[in-house]
Design a protein that fits this description.
CATH superfamily of the largest domain in chain B: Cytochrome-c3 Hydrogenase, chain B
Helix content of chain B: 40-55%
Low-confidence stretches of chain B: 123-145, 397-403
Mean pLDDT of chain B: 82
Number of domains of chain A: 1
Mean pLDDT of chain A: 86
Oligomer: heterodimer
CATH architecture of the largest domain in chain B: Orthogonal Bundle
Radius of gyration of chain A: 19 Å
Order of helices and strands of chain B: HEHEEHEHHEEEEHHHHHHHHEEHH
Largest sheet of chain A: none
CATH topology of the largest domain in chain B: Cytochrome-c3 Hydrogenase, chain B
Strand content of chain A: under 5%
Radius of gyration of chain B: 22 Å
Distance between the termini of chain B: 46 Å
Number of strands of chain B: 10
Largest sheet of chain B: 4 strands, parallel
Number of domains of chain B: 3
Chain lengths: ~300, ~400
């Protein structure tokens, strides 16, 4: 990968991400149905054993690109997140504008859902694709403002520098609005929990309605990986990175990541699905002004 | 036992079931849902996600076609279970056991899968109209392209903003999760906006009276029925509707609680304990700001509209939007649970879905197209779930000539 990046991290990253995604699946099963830790394994084995089915006149390459790009985007986004916090901390790719890269990889999910929804040549997945485009319009701007606010506080677009700037006080404490907006938009970006309208059951699974077998496994594993990456990025952005007493940086990063992940997973059962025809107004009339005000406050404090 | 078989057994231990319910088979569906909960399985939303197709009741011709379409959409390994209207809890459990054995029969499943993949992807038959999952033929390329695989392309029409948009004809139901048994809505969609809707009923062959009205029908036939039994049925009926609406609203946890309560109410658990549990559930549901935000101003019915269509069920008593109707169901359930231990003889014909013996579902079918016009597809599903017509009432053999 790039200079000075430990080879170990490059090998470990997919494993860590897979482990986090699996733990998210286990927590989800435990919170919602009380199933044991084997439930996601069961599901995965079943999907691997199953036949692939195709709809009539479907665009197979498009669907495959959509499905595969989800876990790939999550992995590429994870590559720039520091594992032990601090500048120069070990990560796979030491990119000075890592926040921008992270955000760009998240937006790949737009293409993923749209391609998977469009390619199936079936009405419900198509509508699921529409839904995610509307969702993107609603969440992406507040999300970017939340990222910008954290960057503004640290004066850097680098995750490592942002984490290092939180020596005294976590950004979550003095930019609570940005943190809340980040968490909400993380749910929307990973179409998870109350934001899972694009794949909701009312359309038979929406964009994922026609996916079966290994396609389905990759798609939903990719979604969990996105949730995990969003949780992992919250740690250097708002929770002080790897800083903490006694334990080494990587342990704190992991603990904080799992805590945020557990919160995101738990939220899934707490709310009904949020429809974009209602949420759009709130996103543009409340979230964007609130995120901008937060950025203004942070900007004034930083200038002082 | 081979490795593959052991893997399949491990993987299919929790059944993933796509359920098709025929009007008149509500009792069988409730037994099936209870058995699925015991096995930690759950109903799934699409054939692609299912391993087992369960048909509750005996489908008529239209429902039969829908069942065939769903069956052809389930990837291998797969199993089909047909349950009669009169199936007992033991029969339901035995049928699911048989399905689990079929799924683990590796040689047979592999041979069937190979035969199917030689046939190629499913293709629409004569009209393809019953395929609820595939609104095939969309896309907007009117000029300069060959129609792909000989399929007709979508036509265009002005949408509500005067833009030319593709028009899709998408039937909703009769095989759809959390959907009233037998209801078929033929929608004309532009994007995800319903431009036009036509409601119909896919009937079963079994006939039989509505499960929810049964105590009142028995009382009308001269039997002495305790009021408490009827009130339990009323509470369960509303909890079933509430569970369905919450599931469509994407709140699976709350929907599961409603269904758990429903089954316990029918299982004659202590009314006092149930009333306490229900009160907690109802409070949480009512107080959910998000739920209120999502259901407000969806599918509003006013007095004039109710009178025009002759609505007679709870939807006529609790006028307003879907949230008001949910609130009304919760009120009625609470009141019914308060009388769940009454032993006085049942009188009157005030069943849970409107006067017993009337065709209370027919006006609901009449009002649906008016409510659905201009609604977004998600809102359309909420409107249907918020009315939850009981088509068992239209399924009486006298009403189903020629089937």
């Amino acid at each position: 990968m790039s200079d000075g990046a430990p080879v170990g991290a490059a090998v470990a990253l997919p494993l860590v991400l897979a482990g986090l995604a699996y733990s998210a699946a286990v927590m989800d099963a435990a919170f919602r149905t009380g199933d044991g830790p084997a439930a996601p394994l069961r599901e995965s084995v079943l999907l691997l054993l199953r036949q692939r089915r195709r709809t009539l006149a479907s665009d197979v390459p498009l669907v495959r690109i959509g499905v595969i790009s989800l876990p790939v985007a999550a992995l590429l986004a994870a590559a720039v997140i520091p594992l032990d916090g601090g500048p120069g901390g070990s990560r796979v790719w030491n990119l000075p504008v890592s926040v921008v890269w992270f955000n760009a990889m998240e937006v790949v999910a737009w293409a993923s859902l749209w391609l998977a929804g469009w390619g199936a040549n079936s009405a419900f997945p198509l509508v699921g694709g529409y839904r995610f485009l509307a969702q993107g319009l609603a969440y992406e701007l507040p999300h970017m403002f939340a990222l910008i606010t954290a960057s503004l506080g640290a004066g850097s677009l680098d995750f490592g520098a942002i984490a290092a700037a939180q020596d005294e006080v976590w950004f979550a404490v003095w930019m609570p609005v940005a943190f809340a907006v980040y968490l909400l938009s993380a749910l929307a970006m990973a179409f998870w929990g109350p934001m899972e309208h694009p794949v909701a059951d009312d359309l038979g699974g929406g964009a994922a309605a026609e996916l079966s077998g290994p396609d389905r496994l990759l798609f939903f594993a990719g979604r969990l990986a996105l949730v995990a990456v969003a949780a992992a990025a919250a740690v250097p952005l708002f929770l002080g990175g790897g800083a903490g007493p006694w334990l080494p940086g990587w342990a704190w990063t992991l603990i904080k990541t799992v805590a945020v992940l557990a919160l995101l997973v738990w939220l899934r059962g707490r709310w009904p699905v949020i429809r974009m025809d209602r949420f759009m107004t709130a996103a543009w009339a409340v979230l964007i002004p609130a995120a901008l005000l937060q950025a203004l406050v942070v900007g004034v404090v930083v200038l002082d | 036992m081979g490795l593959r078989e052991r893997l399949v057994r491990f993987a299919t231990a929790c059944p993933h079931v796509f359920v098709v319910t025929v009007p008149g088979a509500t009792r069988t569906r409730l037994l099936l849902e209870a058995e699925l909960r015991r096995r930690r399985g759950r109903p799934v939303a699409s054939p692609a996600a299912a391993t087992t197709l369960v048909v509750c009741g005996t489908p008529g011709p239209e429902l039969g076609t829908a069942v065939d379409t769903v069956w052809s959409g389930i990837p291998a390994p797969r199993a089909l279970v047909r349950l009669e209207e009169t199936a007992s809890a033991e029969e339901v459990a035995a049928a699911l056991d048989r399905a689990a054995r079929e799924l683990a029969d590796v040689p047979a499943q592999w041979a069937a899968a190979a035969a199917r993949s030689r046939e190629g992807p499913w293709a629409p038959g004569g009209d393809g109209e019953h395929d609820h999952m595939s609104g095939h033929g969309h896309g907007g390329h009117e000029h300069g392209m060959e129609p792909p695989m000989g399929l007709a392309m979508a036509g265009r029409a002005d949408d509500r903003d005067g833009l030319k948009l593709d028009v899709l004809h998408v039937p909703l139901g009769p095989a759809l999760k959390d959907w009233p048994a037998g209801l078929v809505l033929r929608l004309t969609l532009q994007g995800d906006i319903v431009q036009d809707a036509e409601a119909g009923v896919a009937r079963g062959r079994g006939g039989g009276a509505s499960f929810w009205d049964e105590p009142w029908l028995r009382a009308a036939a001269g039997e002495r029925v305790p009021e408490g039994e009827a009130e339990r049925r009323r509470a369960a009926s509303h909890l079933d509707s509430v569970g369905r609406l919450l599931a469509v609203a994407g709140w699976e946890n709350a929907a599961d609680r409603a269904r758990g309560l429903r089954d316990d109410v029918l299982a004659a658990r202590s009314a006092k304990v149930l009333a306490v549990r229900f009160a907690g559930f109802a409070r949480r549901t009512r107080q959910s700001r998000t739920l209120r935000w999502m259901l407000r101003d969806v599918g509003g019915i006013d007095r004039a509209m109710a009178d025009r269509h002759g609505l007679a069920g709870p939807e006529a008593r609790h006028l307003g939007d879907v949230f008001d109707r949910l609130s009304g169901w919760l009120d009625d359930t609470g009141a019914a649970l308060a009388r769940a231990d009454s032993t006085a003889p049942l009188e009157g014909t005030g069943g849970p879905r409107g006067p017993v013996g009337s065709r209370a579902a027919a006006p609901v079918l009449d009002v649906l197209p008016e409510l659905l016009g201009g609604a977004e597809l998600a809102a359309a599903r909420l409107i249907v779930a918020g009315l939850d017509p009981d088509l068992d009432r239209l399924a009486e053999p006298a009403e189903a000539p020629g089937e």
